[in-house]
Amino acid sequence: MSTYFIAFAIGVLFWGTLSDKIGRRLAMLSGIVIYLSGNLGLYFAQDFNIVLLARLIQAFGASSGSVITQTIMREAYIDTTRSKVFAKTGAAMSLAPALGPLIGGCAQTFFGYRSVFSTLILIAILILLYTGFYLPETRKTVVKSAKIGMLKILIRIMTDKTVLTYGLLVSGINGILFSYYAEAPFIFIEHFKMTSIQYGLIGIVIALSTPLQVQWL
């Protein structure tokens, strides 16, 4: 998981800059293709080192969805509509880690562990097709060249008190959340002797909280 997040963090910086240069649509399509490539690597991997490399590629591609999606929403919506879209998107995204263990547990139990990766491959292909056919370009003026160096941007970000405050808040929340996702399978499956499907059902409890979030938006 640490390998995944390192590549994801690097990718966020890369895709944000690239989408300013080549546009949101092309950058998003490129990221999805890389994500798909990572999933293919995981499916065919025969060595643990290949698995780690594929996870790096997968995370790097997946990070495009995080930064570019938020940028597109900022450009496509305004005022209170934008806030509602962001809130509903965040609530919907919380379903993924909640339902993921259940879907993955069922796939692994009935079809083997490689079926988890084949499911991700199928999802990536569907997202790629949908994006290719329906995602418009929201940035009207594409930046040809960056006027500010990446190093200066990083220094400005790291010295901004507001960014640091919100960054620490998000880091703390994600640290707790993903610590659970990393350790929970071992605790419930190995210690409490649950099956993969039984563990996945625990995610339903988390998923049920999503409608409670949405009704207050």
TrEMBL record:
**Superkingdom of the organism of origin:** Bacteria
* The protein, known as: Drug resistance transporter
Where does the UniProt annotation locate this protein? Cell membrane
Q: What is the lineage of its organism?
A: Bacteria, Bacillati, Bacillota, Bacilli, Lactobacillales
The cross-references to InterPro entries, in alphabetical order and at most eight, read: MFS, MFS_dom, MFS_trans_sf
Q: Please report the organism this UniProt entry assigns to the protein.
A: Liquorilactobacillus aquaticus DSM 21051
Q: Cite the SUPFAM superfamilies for this sequence.
A: MFS general substrate transporter
Domain Major facilitator superfamily (MFS) profile, first and last residues per copy: 1-217
Q: Where are the transmembrane segments?
A: 26-44, 50-73, 85-104, 116-135, 163-182, 197-214
The chain's coiled-coil residues are none
| Primary location class | membrane
- An example molecular function term from Gene Ontology annotations: transmembrane transporter activity
Pfam families named in the record:
MFS_1
Of the GO CC terms on this record, one is: plasma membrane
Q: How does it sit in the membrane?
A: Multi-pass membrane protein
Report keywords, A-Z.
Membrane, Transmembrane, Transmembrane helix, Transport
